[in-house]
Specification:
By secondary structure, this protein is an alpha/beta fold. About 35% of the residues lie in helices and about 20% in strands. The chain has five helices and five strands; from the N terminus they run αβββαβαβαα. The chain has a five-stranded mixed beta sheet, sandwiched between helices.
Length: about 190
């Protein structure tokens, strides 16, 4: 099954799929899943916004091979703030740490950065992030939307070097959660414009 043939249910509706060459600002197509996930799992940013309960926050995730950067929105979904970085171990432990953050901060939805290639195509990193999201949704019943994260880490690195004047060692400690905040803020801004 190709991406263009695949459809994923989100709150009983089928989301509009973006073209394979979608540019930033356009919806990223939900993942075609092979496993059964929760009914309101992966959706577009606009659908997530409509499903989000009042007063609940969004949690942004920058999923990497070694760490997961986390960022949290304010209850009005205007500002994203870097929260923490989880060092990845086994998926079960990673999911437990995320579940603790979700319950502690009254999270109502997830925004996951999708590392598209510069031409808009999806590579191995996207497959890995999509699989992480699918596995997470088997444990957590929250709506999830992907957001284009191209160049987010590079932009954050530049900002940390130029504006914050941080050393390489200090940058390594904060770059993942700062990239998650960058991704989440981009999604919040896009949702405000929609």
């Amino acid at each position: 099954m190709t991406h263009s043939e695949a459809r994923v249910r989100c709150a009983g509706r089928r989301p509009r799929l973006a073209s394979p060459n979608s540019k930033q600002g356009h919806p990223i197509r939900p993942e075609p899943t092979r496993r059964k996930t929760h009914e309101m799992s992966i959706c577009t940013l606009q659908e997530l916004k409509a499903q989000l309960p009042s007063g609940r926050r969004l949690l942004g995730l920058d999923v990497g091979t070694k760490t997961v950067g986390l960022a949290l929105s304010d209850p009005s979904h205007t500002v994203a703030s870097a929260l923490q970085t989880i060092r990845r171990t086994k998926f079960t432990r990673d999911a437990q740490a995320l579940e603790a953050v979700i319950s502690e901060h009254a999270v109502g939805g997830l925004i996951v950065g999708l590392p598209l290639n510069m031409d808009g195509s999806e590579g191995r990193a996207c497959q890995s992030v999509r699989q992480f999201a699918t596995n997470l949704l088997e444990r957590i019943d929250l709506p999830l939307a992907f957001h284009d994260e191209r160049l987010s880490t590079a932009a954050v690195e530049r900002m940390l070097v130029k504006e914050a004047d941080l050393t390489r060692k200090r940058r390594a400690k904060v770059v993942d959660k700062a990239a998650a905040a960058y991704i989440l803020q981009g999604a919040l801004d896009q949702a405000q414009r929609a």
